[in-house]
Amino acid sequence: MIFSRHVLSVAPLLSTLLGLALAFPAQNLTKRDTIRGPVIGSNFPDPSLIWVQSENSWFAFATNGGGVNVQVATSTDFATWTVLSGTDLLPKVGAWVYAPNPAVWAPMVIQIADGSFVMYYSATSAQDPSAHCVGVATSPSVRGPYTPLADPFACHLDLGGAIDAAGHHHPDGSLYVVYKVDGNNRGSGGSCNNGIPPIKSTPIMLQKVAADGYTKIGNEVQILDRDDGDGPLIEAPSLIHVNGVWFLFFSSGCFAETTYDLSYAYATAVAGPYTKAQAPVAPLLVTGKDGLKAPGSACVAKDGSKIVFHAWLGDSIDGGRGMWTGVPTISGTTVTL
């Protein structure tokens, strides 16, 4: 059976999703000035974020749920969000995907120079249904539908697969993609399948791409990996550039446990070397902070002004993971939230 950090039974949540576009006024749910939520109170894991000027709206995308491969929500003010229930932005997942169980995870969308949109996502590999690969799909509209490329972007099947891809706009106009090699998928059990030695690496990779968002330029490079302080893994990279510094946000711990958290590393070059932020400035989010449980899997707007992340809606992951928002403050190499 494939080890899954994203998929859980959503049967208890179907009644809240059935045919509804759910809106949650965040001003009524404010925990403090910089963190609000849940702004989406239904299962909306692994959210990503993009501002689209032509739509005058924010768009958030999430792991499969509610009968669709890719969920989407919109907001004009970053406070009240509407889930477009029943709208599937990726109705066709790609020829490389294991069709009986595509298990689409962690979609992320960027807009490229010609005005079109590129989606990065993870799905089960037809070559090896025990692992995921990263795929790419394109659309002239942020609202889709997105058309998948024929081949996956990255797989690393021998190491456990590839997941959690995110695009990055370099200030020189070039594009990069970061993703996780899913080493814990080949682990020996325990916390997130990687708590029993020998502990597998879960490296974050960086790949330069052409203006189309997916044609590779050169080879991928490793820019970060787990260490003993991270527990079984690091995952969910989100890369931004602010005032000459690159910030790589990531989660560590285990998504199904209260150890899950949000942290970051920083560098003065896109390929690193990256330095993990340490206490007292990191982790940024942990269980118990502002009443959150297992917060993580974040995406930061490319200018660093906004962040979305998920956290448990109940006392365990079985209650689903909703979306929270935040407003980071960045000063030098320090992020606060």
Automatic annotation (TrEMBL):
Alphabetic keyword roster: Glycosidase, Hydrolase, Signal
Keyword Cytoplasm part of the UniProt annotation: no
Site annotation Important for catalytic activity, responsible for pKa modulation of the active site Glu and correct orientation of both the proton donor and substrate: residues: 164
Origin: domain of life: Eukaryota
Keyword Metal-binding on entry: no
Gene Ontology biological process: carbohydrate metabolic process
Pfam families: Glyco_hydro_43 (PF04616)
Record-annotated membrane-spanning stretches: none
InterPro entries reported in the protein's UniProt record: Glyco_hydro_43, Glyco_hydro_beta-prop_sf, Glycosyl_Hydrlase_43
Signal peptide: 1-23
GO molecular function, one term: hydrolase activity, hydrolyzing O-glycosyl compounds
Location of the active site: 46 (proton acceptor), 235 (proton donor)
Gene3D superfamilies for this protein: Glycosyl hydrolase domain, family 43 (2.115.10.20)
Family: Belongs to the glycosyl hydrolase 43 family.
Family annotation (PANTHER family): BETA-XYLOSIDASE, ENDO-ARABINASE
Protein name per Swiss-Prot or TrEMBL: Glycosyl hydrolases family 43
